[in-house]
Amino acid sequence: MSSPQGVTIRPLRSEDFHDLSRGLAHMYDELAAGESVWITLRHVPPSEADYRKWFDRLLDGMRTGESITNVAQVDSRAVGHCTIERARPGPTTEQSHVGELGILVQKGHRGTGIGARLLERSLDEARQKFDIVYLTVWSKNVEAQRLYRRFGFTLCGHFPHTLKRNGQYFDEDRMFLALTDPPGRAGAKR
Ligand SMILES: CC(C)(COP(=O)(O)OP(=O)(O)OC[C@H]1O[C@@H](n2cnc3c(N)ncnc32)[C@H](O)[C@@H]1OP(=O)(O)O)[C@@H](O)C(=O)NCCC(=O)NCCS
Fold first, then answer.
1. Which helix or strand (DSSP H or E) is residue 166 part of?
2. pLDDT in tens, 21-60
3. pLDDT (tens digit per residue) in 123-178
4. Under CATH, which architecture does the 7-178 domain have?
5. Ligand 1 proximity of 130 Cβ (cutoff 6 Å)
C-alpha cells in the first residue's frame, strides 16, 4: 500500500463541517455521473440542515464519549473521516460494548492509503471504548471489504436485497472485529 504524503489524522473539529458535508454531497454527484457508489444514499439528497444534524451528532458523540471520529486532513482540508459510534447510545445497556464503524474518503484521495490510516487510528482508540466493532458494507464494495479484511474484520452475515437502487436489488454484508483477546474475556468497557 502506498504511504499517503502530507496527511494528518486528527480528531473531528467543528470547522470540519463544510468539508465533511461536501464530501458526502459529492457521493450524490458521483452517482448521478454514473460512477460506482457503494454506500447507501437517500432518494433525495440531504439538506444543509440534515448535514448539520448529522455533523452535530458526531461532535456531540466525541464530547459525551459515545463515539470516535477521526478526520484525514490534506492541505488544511478534511478529505475523509472514520466514525465508530456506540451501537446503542444513551443509557448503558447490554449492547454498550459494541461499536459501529463508518468511513468515507473523498474522491481524488482514495486508493492512496488514507482509509487505512483512518482505520488504524480509529480502531486503536476504539480499544479503550468497545469490545467489538461491526460494520455494514455493500456486497459489491469489494475494495472496501478487502481493506477491512486486512485489518482483521471477518464476514459474519449476508443480507440479500436489503438495498434497492433504480429498481435493482443489492445485498449487504456485516463484518466484525473483536478488540478483546480472547473475545469477551477482557471485560466490557462499560
Ligand atoms: C472504502 C474507502 C473508505 C477506502 O479508503 P481509501 O483511502 O480509498 O483506502 P486505501 O487507500 O487505504 O486503500 C487500501 C486498499 O483498499 C483499496 N481500495 C479501497 N477502495 C478503493 C478505491 N475506491 N479506489 C482505489 N482503491 C481502493 C486499495 O487498492 C488498497 O488496497 P491494497 O492495500 O491491496 O493496495 C474509500 O475508498 C471510500 O471512501 N470509498 C467510497 C465510500 C465507501 O465505499 N465507504 C465504505 C462504506 S462501507
1. none
2. 999 999 999 999 999 999 999 999 999 999 999 999 999 9
3. 999 999 999 999 999 999 999 999 999 999 999 999 999 999 999 999 999 999 99
4. 3-Layer(aba) Sandwich (3.40)
5. no
Position in ligand 1 atom list of the atom nearest CA 104: 39
Judge if the beta carbon of residue 115 lies within 6 A of ligand 1: yes
Band of the pLDDT at 186, cuts 50, 70, 90?
Answer: very low
CA distance 47 to 68: 24
Taking a C-beta distance cutoff of 8 angstroms, is the pair 82, 119 a contact?
yes
**Residue 49 burial (CB < 10 Å; 0-12/13-18/19+)?**
exposed
Structure confidence at residue 181 (pLDDT): 72
Task: Give dist(CA 26, CA 77) in Å, integer.
Answer: 15
What is the Cα gyration radius of the chain?
16
Cβ–Cβ < 8 Å for 176, 152? no
CA distance 118 to 124: 10
Residue pair 165/158 in contact by the 8 Å Cβ criterion? no
Mean pLDDT across the chain = 94
Q: Is 113 in the pocket of ligand 1 (CB under 6 A)?
A: yes
